[in-house]
Amino acid sequence: MSKLITIKNNSLALDISTLGAELQRIEDAKGQQWLWDGNPAIWSGHAPFLFPIVGTLVNNQYHLGDKSYDLPRHGFARRKEFDVIILETDHVCFQLKDDSQTRAVYPFPFTLEIDYRLKEASLIIDVKVTNTGDSSMPASFGFHPALRWPLPTGADRKNHVVLFEKAETGSIAGVDAEGLFTGPRENPVHDRTVILKDDLFKEDALIFDKVASRAVWMGAPGYKGAVVRFPLMPSLALWMKPGANYLCIEPWQGHSDPVDFQGDIFQKPGIVTIEPAKERHFGIEIEINADESALEK
User: Fold this and answer.
1) Can you give the pTM of this predicted structure?
2) Strand pairing report for 12-17 and 4-8
3) What parts of the chain have a pLDDT lower than 50?
4) Residue among 20, 71, 83, 73 nearest 48 (CA)
5) What count of other Cβ atoms lies within 10 Å of the Cβ of residue 179?
């Protein structure tokens, strides 16, 4: 049975479910809600974690040696119950270990720890993936937080933007109807800014596969907003369902298979290899009630 875990400080209160270790609520000191409510009629997610793959596999299968394994989009972590191994007023750590179900689709022993800490008006999430087996382990990891659009600052939805830390002049990619990696698409960034409009997402997510920035600010100019920092993550996706009141800001390590990909999982673009007894960290920080200048921190 899933449980909700609450942590808080003077600026923020969070609810996190043991199912998927998924964030359910970000509330500020004024009682304002910053995270999408997970309306199941539109999209039931709030902020799922993507492991051990990000995105979709060709035919929902990957190859490992002479075997093939079925694995659904974004992997299995978001559907698994996590154990709580640390719980303090402003800090909680969740843990998932491999079991017979995971080994049937991902034959690698592992430990996945997701650590939430509050620091003033920031939520810091550190993820540690440890290879507890005796052979090399392929893995990807992705964050998928859905912030409210509009944010609870009083600004009109139509005035919201995403401001990048650096100029983003390269081409971007998308996904096809099967969720497979395609590209390029027209780059919507002008003067470091994406003006948010529903039709940007009529063909699904925008993927900045080689993003130059390591932080973005979401909000309406002249109002407070939210900063998402992702120093350890090389890619970024923006996604929403047109007409819905959220925007997912998704730092990724890895992405969907390219449409013509036929290789082994170790050859999959964005996969990292974790050697036995070694670990890999992934992380983000979400700061709320932040000015645009917070990007410079």
Assistant:
1) 0.96
2) antiparallel
3) none
4) 20
5) 17
